[in-house]
Amino acid sequence: MSTPTAQQPGRPIGGRIVTVTPNPSLDRTIELAGELQRGAVQRATRSTAEPGGKGVNVSRVVVASGGDTVAVLPGDELDPVLVGLTTRGIPTAALPIGTALRSNVTVTEPTGTTTKLNEPGPSLAGRLDALADLVATTAGPTPTGPAARWVVFAGSLPPGLPDDALAVLVRAVRQRHGDEVRIAVDSSGVPFTALLQSGERIDLVKPNAEELAEVVGGDPEQYEQDPERAAAAAARLRERGVDTVLLTLGSAGAVLVDGTGSWTAAAPRITARSTVGAGDSALAGYLLAEVAGGPPERRLAQAVATGAAAAGLPGSDVPALDATDPDAIVVHRLGPPASPVGSPPAPTGATAPVDASVPVPHGA
Ligand SMILES: Nc1ncnc2c1ncn2[C@@H]1O[C@H](COP(=O)(O)OP(=O)(O)OP(=O)(O)O)[C@@H](O)[C@H]1O
Ligand SMILES: O=P(O)(O)OC[C@@]1(O)O[C@H](CO)[C@@H](O)[C@@H]1O
């Protein structure tokens, strides 16, 4: 295990954000000069390799923005993912596994179309308890500071972990740290459903339209076109033990629902170069605004601005908050406060623009 280091140099932002990536990857991006043709041999004009995986990407944004983070992941010290993280100054806490991590390939075309091929990843059979212990320990107080403010579980589960692995990991953090540490989750499919069924309390989830529809039903395209409908659907997750829902809607922007209300913000028009990591960057933007004390409107604006900035970058590059423009994002309030956790959602109402330009210290 590499030693989690204290805060990186840069502007201090209060609150450590621990990320957990159970299935990290070396993200290889291959740029083509023309369209991708199935069955043909094509030459790349450029290729890059970056350490990736959803939690890793959140940590990359946090470090780039001068924040405090540790990325928890499986992987050996000399694995290219771990070496890449160390080289880039990302603090890690790694669980040795004695085998190589996966490579995920993104093919980008000049039109902006991206094709992604993700490997299953190495098996973590029999290692769940060790990973849970590492996560709970990393989230704890350090010699110089308090416990983490957030633990973020993000991305797919590798082979060999049970469907309820997320619930086991979340429970380990709750048992060790109670409510002192907030839990955020970006997951999908059976692992996400199993977590929601476990009854563990979750502070924040970040689904996209498809992931939301997997859980509460409905049509993802309609969610992207109709923020009111999207917010009503997102509020249904509050019946399942989730406090706050950050629903990202790609080029349509995002919707935020919590116990005090719901809001929507359209994404700025940009020329998308690669949307890989846009969702992770949106989540990082939200969390950085939260640890800096920003209100919900500011957190949503920062999420949308950071996601858009990531979509404008090549490959799986992620932005620093300095390179984002949250003040340009217009946030609309959607309606009355959403229902308390465990109750049916309140109906959403007419939209009204709100001022999201509440200053957030230190660039968050
Ligand atoms: N084409 C785009 N134009 C402008 N902003 C975009 C675009 N695509 C994504 N974004 C921004 O990024 C945020 C996250 O995008 P999206 O909803 O696609 O995440 P996601 O599906 O979780 O992505 P991924 O899993 O690839 O990281 C959006 O809320 C928006 O702010
Ligand atoms: O296979 P998963 O774990 O669902 O997603 C992994 C991944 O596609 O997500 C990130 C982008 O969000 C990339 O860095 C990485 O390759």
Automatic annotation (TrEMBL):
Its EC number is 2.7.1.56. It is an enzyme of class 2 (transferase). Keywords: ATP-binding, Kinase, Nucleotide-binding, Transferase. PROSITE patterns: PFKB_KINASES_2 (PS00584), RHODANESE_3 (PS50206). The keyword Glycosyltransferase does not apply. Residues 337-347 have a biased composition (Pro residues). One of its GO terms (molecular function) is 1-phosphofructokinase activity. Residues 228-272 form the Rhodanese domain. The keyword ATP-binding applies. Gene3D superfamilies: 3.40.1190.20. It comes from the Bacteria. It holds the Pfam family PfkB. Residues 333-364 are annotated as: Disordered. This is 1-phosphofructokinase.
